[in-house]
């Protein structure tokens, strides 16, 4: 007897045992994206930059906002990466955005390219709890001292929940959004040039002067951490981003065919290929079409130019399609 378990698992959660689609959700990388840590796989950067850890930041798959995980900073851990021309903010628009879940009420670093003396070679400092517990705070420098500072009120991000934060420079305006609401704003002099720091870019701590040690540690979770230059991603209130993977033919699926002898055959296919197989199966099921279906093998080809594997309709017991997102978002 032939039947099929499931034609197409469009609701991925119903498909057990195969990559849930949500795992792979991430923002699209555009040319303005200079650093983007999804925190799903540690602290690898989608733009190819290499971050190294201070202490032991750890992935949490329990606490996460988007994708598979977030990164937990225990109050003595941080991330740094070497200076890059990508981090020269100059007088350009920029956006720093992330999700955070804060576990600390004292002043804490989120992102900076400076040291705690801030005398020389400073560019940007983004922190929390400087106005009071739960504020988001931004300091900008022309290279020497902190020339301008911008704050939200306190009490915004210290409730133990996840919050989306976006710091935006749009021309001479600095905007701080929390959960998509404009909560802090201020004005820079026209064409204010932010200093071109040579310090490492630092997440979750700030370097001590003349030392390879750090202070002002962040405690809590960070997720979907992104630095963008040349773009003000938001200038009015918005709904915080929640990237959903495409459910289109761009996706891929694992097709598992169970043969009547109990053997499983697995194919990793594009949805176009899966749909072609289903069309063949449906046609054959009502008595038309060829008795066998050909899969062109692009794997394990060995010395051959091409290998084709045939599946015989009469030998199929069931099949199952587990769709996943194969496209980079
Ligand atoms: Ca994530
Ligand atoms: Ca620099």
String of helices and strands: EEEEEEEEEEEEEEEEEEEHEEE
CATH class of the largest domain: Mainly Beta
Overall number of domains: 2
SS strand fraction: 35-45%
Bound molecules: calcium ion
The percent of residues in helical segments reads: under 10%
Mean pLDDT rating: 88
Shape: elongated
What's the total number of strands? 22
What's the number of helices? 1
CATH architectural name of the largest domain: Sandwich
> Span between N and C termini?
41 Å
Describe this structure in words.
The protein has 329 residues and is mainly beta. It folds into two domains: 12-20 and 246-324, no CATH class; 26-229, Jelly Rolls (Sandwich), CATH 2.60.120.200. It is 5% helix and 37% strand. It is built from one helix and 22 strands. The strands form five sheets. Strands 1, 3, 4, 6, 11, 12, 13 and 17 form an eight-stranded antiparallel sheet that branches. A seven-stranded antiparallel sheet has the order 2-5-14-7-8-9-10, with no helix packed on it. A three-stranded antiparallel sheet has the order 19-18-22. A hairpin with a 6-residue loop joins strand 15 and strand 16. It is elongated, with a radius of gyration of 25 Å. The structure holds calcium ion (CA) (2 copies).
């Amino acid at each position: 007897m032939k039947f099929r378990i499931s034609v197409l698992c469009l609701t991925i959660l119903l498909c057990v045992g195969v990559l849930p689609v949500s795992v792979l959700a991430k923002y699209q990388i555009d040319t303005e994206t200079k650093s983007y840590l999804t925190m799903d796989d540690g602290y690898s950067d989608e733009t190819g930059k290499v971050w190294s850890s201070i202490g032991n930041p750890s992935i949490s798959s329990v606490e996460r906002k988007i994708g598979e995980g977030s990164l937990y900073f225990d109050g003595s851990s941080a991330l740094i990466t070497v200076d890059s021309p990508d981090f020269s903010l100059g007088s350009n628009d920029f956006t720093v955005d992330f999700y955070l879940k804060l576990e600390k009420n004292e002043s804490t670093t989120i992102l900076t390219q400076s040291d705690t003396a801030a005398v020389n070679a400073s560019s940007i400092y983004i922190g929390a709890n400087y106005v009071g517990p739960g504020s988001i705070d931004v300091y900008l420098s022309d290279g020497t001292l902190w020339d301008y500072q911008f704050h939200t009120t306190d009490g915004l991000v210290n409730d133990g929940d996840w919050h989306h934060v976006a710091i935006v420079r749009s021309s001479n305006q600095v905007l701080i959004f929390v959960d998509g609401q404009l909560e802090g704003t201020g004005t820079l002099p026209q064409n204010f040039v932010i200093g071109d720091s040579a310090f490492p870019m630092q997440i979750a701590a700030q370097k001590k002067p003349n030392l390879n040690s750090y202070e002002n540690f962040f405690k809590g979770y960070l997720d979907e951490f992104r630095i963008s230059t040349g773009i003000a991603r938001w200038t009015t209130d918005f709904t915080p981003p929640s990237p959903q993977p495409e459910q289109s033919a761009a996706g891929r699926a694992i097709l598992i065919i169970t043969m009547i002898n109990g053997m499983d055959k697995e194919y990793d296919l594009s949805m176009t290929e899966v749909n072609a197989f289903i069309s063949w199966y449906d046609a054959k099921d009502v008595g038309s079409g060829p008795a066998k279906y050909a899969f062109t093998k692009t794997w394990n080809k060995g010395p051959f130019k091409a290998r084709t594997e045939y599946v015989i309709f009469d030998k199929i017991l069931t099949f199952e399609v587990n769709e996943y997102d194969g496209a980079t978002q």
